[in-house]
């Protein structure tokens, strides 16, 4: 006569062996199977048993242990999915960091080029200002015109620094002027 513990071990071992086998049987097929004789070889500290059924050594566990194992497997799957998601995020962040590093490098090169260009424009401005402000010490001036009687007239001048002297020449008239050249703007 078999004890309750032996029946429990037999049922659990048969259920686990049937479900773990390829082409696992349904729960009805497991219940309909003929009971076999099981021998408990060892009781483990965690509440499981090592049993011998038809020459096979099997590990018999309780339903609570089986449910806990399924919950752990689900939890492992969820954790793996979470890790995969986080790995994907980390890879995305690393690509973003790489893009920003490239952007910063290109931006620094662009700023450097702009600063060099600004320095050249400042040099050009200084050169133009020096040329504009450079004092002219000698100038020749001239012009053509006509008087009221439509006779041609010639205006000629010489300048030394800001002082100017002009001569007015016409067929019957002549004259001269002295003036001062003062820049307003």
By DSSP, the count of extended strands is 7
Total helical elements: 3
Distance between the termini: 127 Å
Q: If you average the pLDDT, what whole number results?
A: 82
Please list the strands of the largest sheet in the order they lie side by side: 4-5-6-7
Helix content: 40-55%
Radius of gyration: 55 Å
Keywords:
alpha+beta; four-stranded antiparallel beta sheet; three-stranded antiparallel beta sheet; 26% strand
Task: Give an account of the 3D structure.
The protein has helices at 4-20, 27-32, 63-133; strands spanning 38-43, 49-53, 56-60, 138-146, 152-160, 163-170, 174-180. The strands form two sheets. It has a four-stranded antiparallel sheet with strand order 4-5-6-7, with no helix packed on it. The chain has a three-stranded antiparallel sheet with strand order 1-2-3, with helices on one face. Helix content is 51%, strand content 26%. It contains three helices and seven strands, in the order ααβββαββββ.
Layout of secondary structure:
Blueprint: H1 4-20, H2 27-32, E1 38-43, E2 49-53, E3 56-60, H3 63-133, E4 138-146, E5 152-160, E6 163-170, E7 174-180
Antiparallel strand pairs: 1-2, 2-3, 4-5, 5-6, 6-7
What's a concise summary of this model?
By secondary structure, the protein is an alpha+beta fold. It has three helices and seven strands; from the N terminus they run ααβββαββββ. The mean pLDDT is 82.
